[in-house]
Amino acid sequence: MDSQEIVAITKLLDTYFEGNKEINSKKILSTWHKDAQIISTEKYLGMEGWVEFEEYYKKQIDNDMSKWDINFKIHSIDIFMNCAIVKVEVNYRVDQRKFDEIQYLNLLKDDNGWLIYSKIFKFY
Questions:
Q1: Were both Cys, which of 30, 59, 101, 118 would link to 106 (CB 3.0–4.6 Å)?
Q2: pLDDT 10s digits, 63-82
Q3: β-strands 113-123, 97-110 pairing
């Protein structure tokens, strides 16, 4: 695997992770292609749900970021030319509630760099 591509993908994912840690939908969406899709058996509103995500979680924690914690662990990055699949484990804490999620992020690289094109996820 090309180490430069791994660095570029990791940088993109760091921005995605930071956006989630900050509950910042604009930062999160900056890492996604405009036509990206999110697929799950979970109740989910699609890409437009990011703004609702921000409002929902800020309300859940009464805008007290000490009640919010989210951690990401990259399990694997598989790259072939301009395509990549990343498996990510996510651990959430929302006030006293804790839950986990596995995400499979599909990325494509164009002239502007890497972007997330789709996400499949499952809470557990």
A1: 118
A2: 999 999 999 999 999 999 99
A3: antiparallel
